[in-house]
Specification:
The protein is of the alpha/beta class and 335 residues long. The protein contains ten helices and 13 strands. The protein has two domains: 1-118, no CATH class; 120-335, Leucine-rich repeat, LRR (right-handed beta-alpha superhelix), CATH 3.80.10. Helix 1 (17-37) packs parallel to helix 2. The relative contact order is 0.06. It comes from Arabidopsis thaliana (Mouse-ear cress).
Length: 335
């Protein structure tokens, strides 16, 4: 069963405060009455739209009611100036899979999807985003990778949300979060989780849009290899024509580069690609002062060999870069 209540069409313009209060009371009674009447009926969706401020107490009561009935979809479109203590009630629900929220704060460990219609995060300093696609979206995205017409609009676009958080100073992104992003003028630290099935073309755009970035952290150096890897400015790989260095690297302001999970590979070929990638960073990033490698290995000789190979990379005309390789048993540094 679905329950939908929409009072948003009647904005109640031109009525007195007393009349508005009576209208809201009637709306609240209507919702309460319907919930009581259908208390023994399984509930799939519960939707409330109300542009007038009904206050937190009725809404919290409604949500508590439907959560106890194991509702799977909760849609709230409520204008309010109140702080909403909702986290405890929602965290107690293991079945809710969708929630739509406006003008309220929400915290939930069981929530799988959140639609935030209005976002204002001007004071936000740090953001950690791990946006996931459904299995169907992942399949469609892979299937249409070479068909831009079919690919357009297949998966959700979070551009508006990213614009709202563009003032952050520290940003963590999972591989599924890499999509067209706005300019992050205040961003000084960026962490990117990588995956062998996801390309880096969006990452190059993000680096260009981070003019004051100081620290870049990679969780792994994996990505999907295709023809774009040999094209300047579409990937971070070394292009066929060496003079065509991606501008996101040649003009990079980054001073500290950290590579986590270095050596976390499936094949020897992957290790060669990782080595080549780090060497290319050293060759092209002009302001790099420190390279920190967290090597997933316990063999000391391999750690020493990696440091030695990176030390031989020429940096003529670039800043001096201190290289550090850290393993489970050893910490080596070039200086």
């Amino acid at each position: 069963m679905n329950l939908d209540f929409d009072d948003s069409k009647r904005m109640h313009y031109g009525v007195t405060k007393q009349e508005r209060v009576k209208m809201l009371q009637r709306f609240i009674k209507r919702v309460d009455g319907k919930l009581a009447l259908c208390k023994n009926v399984p509930l799939n969706r519960f939707s409330i739209k109300c542009k007038d401020d009904v206050g937190p107490a009725p809404v919290i009561g409604w949500i508590t009611n439907v959560l106890k009935r194991r509702v799977s979809e909760l849609a709230l479109d409520i204008s309010s100036c109140w702080d909403w203590p909702m986290s405890t009630a929602i965290d107690g629900c293991n079945t809710m899979v969708q929630e739509f929220w406006e003008s309220c704060s929400v915290s939930s460990t069981s929530l799988k999807r959140l639609t935030y219609l209005k976002a204002n995060f001007d004071s936000l300093v740090e953001a950690r985003l791990d946006l996931q696609m459904t299995h169907d979206q992942i399949h469609k995205a892979k299937f249409s990778a070479d068909d831009p017409i079919q690919h357009e609009g297949l998966v959700g676009n979070a551009t508006v949300f990213f614009i709202a958080i563009c003032n952050v100073r520290s940003l963590y992104l999972s591989y599924n979060t890499l999509e067209p992003l706005p300019v992050f003028n205040n961003l000084i630290q960026l962490t990117v989780k990588t995956d062998r099935l996801v390309g880096w073309e969006s990452l190059t755009a993000l680096l260009k849009n981070s003019p004051n970035l100081e620290t870049l952290v990679f969780e792994g150096l994996l990505h999907r290899y295709d023809m774009k890897c040999q094209s300047s400015d579409e990937c971070l790989c070394k292009p066929w024509e060496e003079e065509n260095i991606p501008t996101c690297l040649s003009l990079s302001p980054v001073k500290v580069l950290k590579i986590m999970k270095f050596g976390d590979i499936d094949e020897d070929e992957d290790m060669d690609k990782m080595m080549d990638q780090v060497e290319y960073f050293l060759e092209t990033m002009p302001n790099l002062e420190q390279l920190i490698i967290h090597y997933e290995i316990s063999i000391d000789e391999d750690v020493e060999e990696v440091l030695s190979q990176f030390q031989m990379v020429p940096r003529e005309g670039l800043t001096e870069c201190r290289i550090q390789v850290i393993s489970d048993n050893l910490v080596l540094s070039s200086i």
